[in-house]
What we know:
Layout: E1 3-7, H1 14-29, E2 34-38, H2 43-52, E3 68-71, E4 74-78, H3 79-87, H4 91-94, H5 104-107
Parallel strand pairs: 1-2
Antiparallel strand pairs: 1-3, 3-4
Amino acid sequence: MVIKVYIASSTGSIAIKKHQQAVVGFLEANRISFQEVDITMLEEQRQWMYRNMPKDKQPEKGNPPPPQIFNDDHYCGDYEDFFQSKEDNTVFAFLGLSAQPSVKDSES
């Protein structure tokens, strides 16, 4: 299982940049393995992301804003879904992961 975070490396939106940084920062801090996919550089990846998002998550006009989060081919959610799972302390379930990685080894 690979967590994929679809981001836009070149965006003029400060909010999108902050949302992307929040997701990536959380994953790194919790030692959750993930792959960043830059939709501004890889057109086929951008198209794949759009095709694999649920219809109710796609805006009526324009494109869905990054970050969008997947576990392999399974859509997990967008930043708002991620933020809510963080508030509810259910991020690992949100990501489709069974348990939090052990950090005891790195604390020794």
